[in-house]
Structures are given as structure tokens and as C-alpha cells.
Input
Amino acid sequence: MLIRGVALLAACYVIGQLIGETLGRLLRIDANVGGVGFAMLLLILSQNWLEQRGRFHLEMQEGVVFWSKMYLPVIVAMSATQNAKLALSSGLVALLAGIVPVLVCLATMPLISKLNPKPE
Output
């Protein structure tokens, strides 16, 4: 079961990277646009889907939890390789890539909180 958790995480990561690369190409940017973010969203959605169907077992969760502990060091290492000067000189696209996701998250939070039943 541990390997299934790692496999779920790996599948979400690969799909997220493909979405990020595709989005970058559609925007005519030679970069991955939000691949890790898409991967995390896919992981959250797939984990919830599996939990609702009773298929996300404790052993499977251990595989996901192991790599979630590694998430911050991996992201720090990835961001250290980014070219900040190039991103700033890109202008509007770099700003939109940061501002739009934050605004979307802020706009959807009230909707998500209304969909979630309140504990009694």
C-alpha cells in the first residue's frame, strides 16, 4: 500500500508537469507554468476522491505523507534554479503568473467554505 501512495503522488506530479509544459507552450513561454501547483491540486482532488470511496487506506497515506515532508526542500531547490532576472524582464506574463492564481484562490475560498459542511 505504501507504494500505491508514492505511485499516486508520482502520477499527479507527471500529469501536473505535462499540464504546466503545455500551458507554457500555449502561452509561448519557454518554461513550465505551474506544473508543481497543478500536481498538488491533482493530488488533493484524487486523495479526496479516494477517501470518499473508502479506497485511501492508512498505508497508502504513508506514501503520500513521506513525500509531502520532502515538498518544501524540493520546492526551495527548484526555485533556487529559477532565473529571477529573466522573469522580471518578461514583464506582464511574470506578474500575471503570480497574481492571477492568488486572485483565483481568494475568489474561490468562500465558495469552497460554503460547500464544506460545518462540524456540529
About this structure: The chain has a mean pLDDT of 80. The first helix runs from residue 2 to 26. Helices lie at 2-26, 35-52, 58-69, 71-80, 84-89, 92-115. DSSP finds six helices and no strands in the chain.
